[in-house]
Amino acid sequence: MKRTLGMAFLLGLLAACGSGDSGGGGNAGSSAPNTVVGLVTDIGSGARLAGVTVRLVGSSRTTTTDSRGEFILQNLPPGMVKVDVEKAGYAPGHGLAESTSSAQAVLIALKKEGAEQNYNPTQARTLFQRTEAGPYAVIFSPNSLNTTDANLRVVVTPLDPTKEDGALPGDLIAGGASPTPLGAVTFAEFSILDSQNRRINLKPGSNAIVELPIPPELRSRYKIGDKIHCYAYNPQTGRWEDFVEGTVERSSVDGTTPVLKASIRHFSWYGGAPAVQDQECVLVVVSNRFGPLEGAVVTARPGLRAVTNRLGQAEITIEKGVPVNFVATKTYTDTFVDNNGNLIPKPGAKVIDIGKVYEDDLIGLDGKNYSRRPGPCPANSVQSVRSAATNPLPIRVAPAPEGFYSANALLQPGGVAIVQLEKGIPNADGDLDNAEPAAGAKITISDNAGKTATLSELAPGAYFANNFDVEPGKRYTLNIDADGNGSIDGSGSAFALGNVAWSNLSNGGSYSAASLTATWSDSASAQPGYNALYQVSFQRNGGSGVSDLAFYLGSERSFQPRAQTNPPTPLTPGTYTVTLNAFSGAFNGGNLDITDNITGIGMQGQIFSLQAVNPITITLTP
Amino acid sequence: MRGAIWLALVLLVSCSGPPQRSHYVLVSQAGSSTVAVVDPVQGRTVKRITVGGLPHRMILNPDGSKVYVVLVGSQAVAEVDVQRLEVSRTFLTAPVPERRSDGSLIQPHFDQGAFSKTSCFACHNPGGAKPFIVGERPVGIAFSSDLGSLFISHIRQGRLSEIDLGSGRVVRAVNLPPSGSANEAVEVARVGSRLVVAMRPRQPSSEAGAVRWLDEGTLDPLSEAPTGSDPAFVLPLEDSALVSNFESNTLSLHSPGSSPKSFTVTPGPLGMLAVGQGRILSLNYYSNAVSLVDLASGQVQNYKLELGSRVFVNPTHAALSPDGRRAYIVSSGTEGHLVVFDLERRQVSQAIPIDGLSFDVVVVRR
Q1: Looking at the partner chain, which of B285, B309, B356 has a beta carbon nearest the beta carbon of A174?
Q2: What is the pLDDT of residue A35?
Q3: A336 CB burial (10 A radius; 0-12, 13-18, 19+)
Q4: Residue A317 included in any domain
Q5: Is A277 close to B132, i.e. CB distance below 8 A?
Q6: What are the Cα distances from residue B84, in Å, to B32, B51, B81, B365?
Q7: DSSP element (H, E) containing B241
Q8: Is there a single domain that holds both residue A146 and residue A217?
Q9: Which residue of A has its CA nearest to B134?
């Protein structure tokens, strides 16, 4: 009898928790057929974008996003739906969703466009937009554009997929009979606008050359001379097309940055993404606070797309051995879930649950033993039901936060990890106005060997990883649930710096101004994927002329100090103060303004590591 | 009523044409290291043969028993037995190196016995040794006059190798001298007892490529003519060679000792297929179209690759059906299709899903 009561109590608890529906599966919710809902955000700030024009490709239907950045398209034809989105000041965005018997959500992140540059198309010109990765360039031949307008504006919008892959349009896959993920390397959007603000393209048969920097984090993987597959995004088909091989070469703009150089035939989003050869199949489970969700859409980058079955599970193909971004969405268009777990009919409502996991842990075999197997998932595995003994990768979804959060995370090599989290309203620059500490967040940190910790909140908005030593040269990932509702709102990763020290300079030393090449070491430089930026300055004490200062910013570990004359000349002999700073990840300050590397919906921020080597004084001799 | 049905059946039969000889269509699927065996009657891939890294060009031997697949990423050629639809042998197209370009020893090549392998895919495969793509990048392929060997052109170092099909070993190899900045041997074909090699500069480039004629017996150069900066394919004809110029949207007809004759097609000509009566089908990658080129009259007719509202993008290569009425065209977008193009109606009649980023196609008997 006691046992029976115990079982009844347990069943009651299960029912109250909503961990399974009455049929023994997940909670599917109710959603309208052939409906697509969407959310448009700024990839930089994470802010929801209102007033964005949304156009259904292949029809005249348009709509705009509401004050929450959301839109809804109903009564669509079945099949893959393509939407184009436009907002002044942003590069064009594109999204894909399946119009089926249940509604799906499309998340579109827009990237603020680069600066406009004037161009007369009768001339040969190289135009570029520079970021911390280097110059993103387009090289025009004379009269190659399909216009007679002499007053064109060229906009180059760089995109570093190691930080902003959420803004890449469409699915980055080679589809067809047997889909294969493509691994994103470097991208940019190229817009050519005429006097009437119409988009201009190349004449049929003409081409232009583009140069896209290899992101610092990928430079150990792609070397000078390597070939990388390049694609242009076709908004009409919703696919990446026009595959050609590009070559990694030195930038023609600065002569040093390794860039992917390729021939382009259509201006659009363009970039390099080789087919992923080493694949594995991972089992994921998507749930909200009531239990597993059927019909949730999961996308992985690098990886494919899958839809969860009645147990909330899906098998999804990913690239093996690299960090993978998982994003899950679940939408309910004509019902919503109240605080008691009831589905409330609400015609026209747009409810999008979102969950993100940035999983470094999939790199190492010694990490969490998620259910996975070598090779791509079988074609019909999406609806297969796995046994309860499996250990799927959990992705928790919840409504995207209404507030805006900013995170600032410091990795102190040999020390601790500290995160400051603020909540406020983003201004036009993406910074938060009226920022207040954000309490109650759930933040985890993990390294690339499977070690994970949950951060403690020391004070409101200040989080600290207790008993978690940050080791030089390791890669660390933060997953931030800013509002503490169980779903990850933002994530990002960076390497902890190694120990940086001068190799051939010492305090009080004397060197030839004409022949000196300053070199330094970084104990983590041999780590796969590791990349640091080094900032070096030579300043003559008491001097202020052009020949009294030399400056370097880059990822090499040597530098020949030269005055910024044309041509560069040796520095004036004398006594110099020499500084050396090293940075990893995103860091604002010290004359650096680097793209945020913590991204999410309603979230922006930086995770970084820095080291300042003590300044030294040296003498440069004639 | 019964008469109407009978008439409809008669019309249906008369419109469907004679039954096709039984055949398969083989497609090299570069993204998945496989060759797809497509049954055009069923309209699907019935088998996938794992051949090696980045399979691209394929040729069928004259008796139809073997298909040779160039493995760009594995520095090898795979021989596929047509009857069994299996890889029967692989051949290296260049020696396995002992050292890297920086001079350091590649110790795993010694530890793993790499020098006795017949394809780098044995070790450099998905889940295996990194990098996945290795070697001298073989691309072009042609039979020797006596059909006893294969000539293979390589992108790196402009190497041309001859593989003896009896022993499966490289018996001759030369590094072709560059022509200006054109130093990549992207394609090779044989016209009689002469070889035709297309050379191109490292891409992207606007500098000229070259079409070089070699003596098959000595591999000595006979003559050379400039061509576009990105020659993609060489189609051997009776006493000349047709070269597709990917970047300048032309096909150029080369004969030793005479100036090339040029035909303008829609953007991005890549593969070419002789379809009879002196006509050539040009596969125009960037324009999602094909051109029918009459070499005698110079007439060029262009056709979009569309079926209903669907556009089939990035055609690469084509093969002729046994009855000569259809061309099987590889649509090599990220969403791949084998497109059936009716040469009489000059329109797409069918599209069969294959892997994205596929490349070449041959027709074999069942």
Answers
A1: B356
A2: 84
A3: middle
A4: yes
A5: yes
A6: 21, 14, 6, 11
A7: strand B241-245
A8: yes
A9: A226
| DSSP H or E segment with residue B89 | strand B86-92
- Rounded-to-integer distance, Cα B139 and Cα B105, Å: 27
The rounded distance, in Å, linking the Cα atoms of A371 and A364 is 13
How far, in Å, CA of B266 to CA of B301, rounded?
10
Same domain as A392, residue A408: no
Tens digit of pLDDT for each residue in A488-534? 888 888 899 999 999 999 999 999 999 999 999 999 988 877 878 88
The nearest CA of chain B is from the CA of A412 a distance in Å of 32
For the question of an ipTM over 0.95, the answer is no
Greater model confidence, A387 or A428: A428
Among A59, A173, A178, the strongest candidate for a mutation testing the B interface, having the largest count of B CBs within 10 A, is A178
Phi-psi region at A207: left, alpha or beta (left = phi > 0; alpha = psi -120 to 50) = beta
Q: What is the pLDDT along chain B (366 residues), one digit of tens a residue?
A: 444 444 443 333 334 444 455 999 999 999 889 999 999 999 999 999 999 999 999 999 999 999 999 999 999 999 999 999 999 999 999 999 999 888 899 999 999 999 999 999 999 998 889 888 999 999 999 999 999 999 999 998 899 999 999 999 999 999 999 999 999 999 999 999 999 999 999 988 889 999 999 999 999 999 999 999 999 999 999 999 999 999 999 999 999 888 999 999 999 999 999 999 999 999 999 999 999 999 999 999 999 999 998 899 999 999 999 999 999 999 998 889 999 999 999 999 999 999 999 999 999 999
What's the domain count of chain A?
Answer: 5
- CA–CA dist B62, B67 (Å, integer): 10
CATH class of B21-43+267-366: mainly beta
Determine whether the interchain pair B334/A240 forms a contact, defined as Cβ–Cβ distance below 8 Å: yes
Residues in chain B with CB shorter than 8 Å from the CB of A279 are: 126
**Based on the domain organization, do A581 and A452 belong to the same domain?**
no
With CA atoms as reference, the chain A residue closest to B38 would be: A177
Question: How far is A402 from A380, CA to CA, in rounded Å?
Answer: 37
In this structure, are A237 and A219 located in the same domain? yes
Q: To probe the interface with A, which of B101, B334, B335, B357 has the most A CB atoms within 10 Å?
A: B334
Domain ranges of chain B: 21-43+267-366
Residue A374 pLDDT > 60: yes
Write the residue in B45, B125, B204 that is nearest to A263 by C-beta.
Answer: B204
Residues of A with a Cβ under 8 Å from any B Cβ are: 58, 141, 173-180, 182, 204-205, 207, 209, 227, 229, 231, 234, 236-237, 239-247, 261-263, 265, 275, 277-279, 320, 374-375
Which range marks the domain in which residue A82 is found?
36-110
Q: Which of A399, A426, A454 is the last residue of a domain?
A: A399
Q: What number is the average pLDDT over the span A92-100?
A: 89
Residues of B at the A interface, defined by Cβ within 8 angstroms: 29-33, 36, 45, 48, 53, 125-127, 132-133, 202-204, 206, 247-249, 266-268, 285-287, 309, 311, 313-314, 332-337, 353-358
Which residues have a Cβ under 8 Å from the Cβ of A12 and sit 6 or more positions away?
A: none
Tell whether A150 and A214 lie within a shared domain.
yes
Residue A516 inside a domain? The answer is yes
Domain-embedded: residue A458: yes
Q: Is the pLDDT of residue A422 over 70?
A: yes
Residue A452's pLDDT band (cuts 50, 70, 90): confident
Domain final position from A399, A423, A441? A399
Degrees to nearest 5, angle at CA A221 with A220 and A226 = 115
CATH number of A476's domain: 2.60.40
Contact B357 A245 (CB under 8 A): no
Tokens standing for A162? 């190691």
Looking at residue A593, its pLDDT comes to 59
Q: Do both A169 and A263 map to the same domain?
A: yes
Distance between CA atoms of B114 and B107, rounded to whole angstroms? Answer: 10
How are beta strands B326-331 and B315-320 bridged, if at all? antiparallel
User: Mutate which of A203, A277, A279 to disrupt the B interface (most B C-beta within 10 Å)?
Assistant: A277
The reply to whether A207 falls in a domain is yes
> Are A419 and A479 contained in the same domain?
yes
A56/A126 same-domain check: no
**Chain A to chain B Cβ contacts (< 8 Å):** 111
